[in-house]
């Protein structure tokens, strides 16, 4: 139910800004959130409903569940995401205290104080981050048949595990380059034109704050043709960033930078962006390893083997966590 509250807030408060920024998104005609007092007066305040315009006349091709997008749709999806992410910098508030906590924490907070239940997006966008997947994480830690059990869950001298370190870094803290993210980017949640040159996303139940690369991690693994990710016909066990993947990332990053508000947001350095991307892939792989793999599993695991074995990435991650704790 919290996720439906989030979606109503998104369409009431965020979608109008997107439309004015040239980012196509459904518009809300009416919702029970915006008619709360009338709902109480008519005794239907237990009802939650949202009336949106139909996207299909302009975007007639519906994405399918666990389907692979065409090349045109992939580049259009990256462009939409880059514009969506960059546009939020102009509207993202500095105070993050009103955003919703992870679901169980939010439920506990509201139970203890009914007045603190508020309408907003999730503090941490998505539904796969570690705070929402503790039970699966515990099971992975004891799954001695999984190679990822030790990689993600092992702890030395009481220090955080690699999965915990990656998740800690990705927690929103009001840092530069954090944006609103969609939280559930996949082929099933978009419509496109017949040519595939333009797309529009929907289903904003998990919209919140995060790094845009977290949206890309799921898109790449689950909806992008493998040939756009790598030139390898046979995926090696460990795979570094190759030219195909870099082309897609550059396409997104260039649009993101070209659409950022001038003077307010520092340049998102390419090398920093790539470190964020690597961390998002590690976090996404942890979720899949504990919940179940689907999509380009072989590619994802090969990329994450390379990343987690890279001392440069590990050292960078630890430095970032030290900076955050100071």
Automatic annotation (TrEMBL):
Q: Which InterPro entries match?
A: EcKL, Kinase-like_dom_sf
**Protein name, please?**
Aminoglycoside phosphotransferase domain-containing protein
Q: Which organism is it from?
A: Trichoderma asperellum (strain ATCC 204424 / CBS 433.97 / NBRC 101777)
Please name the taxonomic classification of the source.
Eukaryota, Fungi, Dikarya, Ascomycota, Pezizomycotina
């Amino acid at each position: 139910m919290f996720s439906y509250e989030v979606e109503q807030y998104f369409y009431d408060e965020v979608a109008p800004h997107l439309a004015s920024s040239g980012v196509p998104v459904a518009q809300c005609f009416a919702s029970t959130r915006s008619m709360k007092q009338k709902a109480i007066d008519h005794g239907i305040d237990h009802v939650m409903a949202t009336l949106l315009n139909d996207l299909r006349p302009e975007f007639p091709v519906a994405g399918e569940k666990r389907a692979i997008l065409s090349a045109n749709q992939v580049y259009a999806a990256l462009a939409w995401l880059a514009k969506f992410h960059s546009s939020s910098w102009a509207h993202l508030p500095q105070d993050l205290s009103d955003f919703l906590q992870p679901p169980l924490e939010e439920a506990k907070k509201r139970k203890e104080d009914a007045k603190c239940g508020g309408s907003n997006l999730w503090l941490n966008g998505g539904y796969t981050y570690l705070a929402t997947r503790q039970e699966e994480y515990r099971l992975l830690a004891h799954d001695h048949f999984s190679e990822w059990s030790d990689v993600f869950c092992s702890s030395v001298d009481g220090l955080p595990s690699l999965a915990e370190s990656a998740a800690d870094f990705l927690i929103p803290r009001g840092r530069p380059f954090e944006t609103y993210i969609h939280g559930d980017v996949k082929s099933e949640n978009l419509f496109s034109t017949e040519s595939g040159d333009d797309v529009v996303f929907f289903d904003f139940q998990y919209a919140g704050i995060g790094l845009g690369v977290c949206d890309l991690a799921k898109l790449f693994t689950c909806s992008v043709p493998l040939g756009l990710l790598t030139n390898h016909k046979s995926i090696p066990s460990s795979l570094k960033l190759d030219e195909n993947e870099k082309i897609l990332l550059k396409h997104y990053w260039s649009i993101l930078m070209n659409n950022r508000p001038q003077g307010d947001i520092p340049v998102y350095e390419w090398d920093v962006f790539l470190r964020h991307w690597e961390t998002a892939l590690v976090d996404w792989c942890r979720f899949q390893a504990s919940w179940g793999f689907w999509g380009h599993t072989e590619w994802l695991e090969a990329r994450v083997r390379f990343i987690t074995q890279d001392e440069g990435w590990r050292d960078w991650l630890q430095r970032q966590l030290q900076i955050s704790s100071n």
